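Chapter review: from sequence to fold.
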Amino acid sequence: MTWNLWWRFGPWRERQAAIRAEIAAQSPDLLLAQEVWCHSEDGDQAAQLAEPAGYHVARSTRPDGQPYAFGNAILSRWPLGSIETIALPGTDGLPSHRTAVLAEVDHPGGSLLAVVTHLEWRYDHSALRVRQLEALMAELRLRRLGTDSERAIVLGGDLNAVPDADEVRRLTGLSAAYGEAGSRGPVFTDAWTAVRDDPGYTWTRDNPHTRDALWPRRRLDYVMVSWPRPKPIDNPLAAHLGGQEPVEGVVPSDHYAVVVDLDDRPPEEHE
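The token string follows.
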């Protein structure tokens, strides 16, 4: 499940109970969350969401080890190891507050790499999102060099781009993959388009928080699995949206969540 939690915007205190209720209802094995807050007085939202279900947590952290006040998080039912925060480039090319969190997930069917990210939001910054994904894909190539893992990289996030945008097309193999010739990839399957025929808008005027949005019908949020991998390991099986309904009169976030079922049986069960 990937979900942009809308930080401390709007009626943020009232939204917390709705967010917790939706996570409990969906009960994801992996939650890849963006716009997660950390506050000196209110604590860390990721830790608070993880506690009821006993999730393990990987949090975006600054070089000094402190959590970002506006960051990303991975909540996992299984233990996490080798956690890393990647600072993505900003408009000046230097590391920015936009990040990706990478964590090895100790899944019983074999270790997999989980990644959560949140790209630049501006409509006219497609080129910057390309650079941000280029930086992230370079890190993922390094993480997979010399490994014999058959499991996919599971990438979730708010990419702030629609499926036919240049930055997403390169990610999903519809145009030249990220990387130099001879060292391209990884390439990803967009789980929603793999199993659904509808657009799956996650940013829509149907949500009262985005009723006045300039572009109100967009799918900005994704769960993706990497290629190559032995089929059908980690193939998408089903997908649906979450967080659409109000809880005690409050819709949880300005984004809907994307919830995906993957075929996560161990390789020997496919034989």
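Two observations follow directly from the output. The two ends are 28 Å apart (CA to CA). The chain has a mean pLDDT of 94.
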